[in-house]
Amino acid sequence: MPADSDALLLESARVRRQRLRGAFLHGTLRERRTTRDNVRRFVGSTVLAALACAGCAGWSFVQANTGDNAAGAAAVEEGTG
């Protein structure tokens, strides 16, 4: 039985050391588990998705207008424009 209590004592000391190290490196548990972190991730992801969509729409707009301008310039050169 003494071996079990010694092992239990050593295990609890190890766990306490791990928790203290984690608190020192990452802050208290309340600070580590905030919903603000998840909200920031969500907002950041939404902004990134909106920028990607705007970039795609802008590229499509430029490609469509460049194609129309090239066709219009060719028609003007032929004299049909």
Automatic annotation (TrEMBL):
Lineage: Bacteria, Bacillati, Actinomycetota, Actinomycetes, Micrococcales
Residue ranges of the TM segments: 42-62
Keywords: Membrane, Transmembrane, Transmembrane helix
Protein name: Uncharacterized protein
Biological source species: Georgenia satyanarayanai
Keyword presence, Transmembrane: yes
